[in-house]
Amino acid sequence: MHHHDAKDLNPDGAQHVVTAESPDDRKARKRIADENVDEALAETFPASDPISPFVPAKVPREYGSFEEFFQAYAEAYNRSLQGEVDETGIRSAYAAHFVSATPMGVAAGCNDATFGEQLRKAYAFYDGVGATVLTLRGVDARRIDDLHDIARVGWRGEYVRPRDGKSVTIDFEVTYLMQSLRPHQPQIFAFVAGDEMAALREHGLVA
Q: Which of 62, 92, 135, 200 has CB atoms 3.0–4.6 Å from 184's, for a disulfide?
């Protein structure tokens, strides 16, 4: 439902005319404004999770390049490995909604409190398999249009294998789809990744 309220400029293309507002008009305007607020609240509190409201991640800082963006992402990842999960740093890299595609299938994600909980579980897993540091190897970014880019990113994961303390290095690539609604503030709205579990299993990091 869409209504114009007192803040709208030139609604429906009409000429701007200033008139006195009658008490009845004021009541009608307030009712429409209240309905708009109710509609916004209904969208903010989805039926699937009526207790936990959607809380968007902090707006990302500006980046001079995609290399800088993914370097900051790696730094947030590494901070999360060393202590408390940098939920703000990781979540700010993602759009409000995103899609992942892996050999496990395609999944849709929501950048909300549930995503934060998933991050904590993921980093607990990485800690358990001996992950120590993630290094950016390179970024090949291509423009799609004025707002969208595709970035193929090379990563290097380093581990200390729990069973014998041996150092393990795994190179891999992830392809990201990026949206920049604000200049120099890209966010990930989709990514395509390989079979991470197979790579970990191959190197003896998981059974």
A: 62
- In the sheet that holds 94-102, the strands lie side by side as 105-110, 94-102, 187-193, 167-179, 148-160, 131-143
Residues 6+ apart with CB under 8 A from 129: 159, 162, 200, 205, 206
Stated as kind and residue range, the H or E segment containing 45 is none
Tell me the β-bridge partners of 178: 149, 188
**Distance from C-alpha of 93 to C-alpha of 57, rounded to nearest angstrom:** 9
Residues in a beta bridge with 188: 94, 178
Nearest alpha-carbon partner for 130 in 155, 167, 75? 167
123 burial via Cβ count (<10 Å: 0-12, 13-18, 19+): buried
Q: Measured over all CA atoms, what is the biggest interatomic distance in the chain, rounded to whole angstroms?
A: 81
pLDDT tens readout for residues 146-197: 999 999 999 999 999 999 999 999 999 999 999 999 889 999 999 999 999 9
Instruction: Report residue 2 as tokens.
Output: 């869409």
Two tokens, residue 51: 């207790």
Give the length of the chain: 207
pTM of this structure: 0.70
